[in-house]
Design a protein that fits this description.
- The chain is of the alpha/beta class and about 110 residues long.
- The protein contains one helix and five strands; from the N terminus they run H-E-E-E-E-E.
- The protein has a five-stranded mixed sheet, with no helix packed on it.
- The model has no long low-confidence stretch (mean pLDDT about 85).
């Protein structure tokens, strides 16, 4: 059986974890009603947590990148979909720093020529 100080330490660590994983609202229009557009904390290369403008359209059975993504999107999560072609749909996302297209059917990447 754990002591009271050990229990307090565990609760404190749990609260710290929950604080760093909680999403915050981002006042923007999301491309699809099933996507989540929110500020999510992410760890930078310099080991600092920042709020990143995140569009999460994971596991939506999408066959294309959604249109009308917010132009200030920083993180775009599209994993576990059926996207085969990227086209030039990401060119307007000037602030994009993270893109997850894992578990898709990517077969063509238009290089914007």
């Amino acid at each position: 059986m754990g002591s009271v100080p050990t229990l307090h330490l565990i609760l404190l660590l749990l609260l710290c974890f929950l604080h760093h994983t909680a999403a915050k609202p981002w006042n923007t229009s999301c491309p699809l009603p099933t996507c989540a557009c929110e500020l999510r904390e992410r760890l930078t290369d310099s080991s600092q947590y920042i709020d990143a403008k995140t569009v999460d359209c994971s596991n939506q059975q999408l066959t294309a990148i959604p249109p009308d993504l917010p132009l200030d999107t920083e993180v775009l999560l599209l994993q576990v979909n059926n996207i085969a072609n990227l086209g030039n749909s990401l060119g307007s996302l000037q602030n994009l720093t993270e893109l997850d297209l894992s578990q898709n059917d990517i077969s063509d990447i238009d290089q914007g020529r």
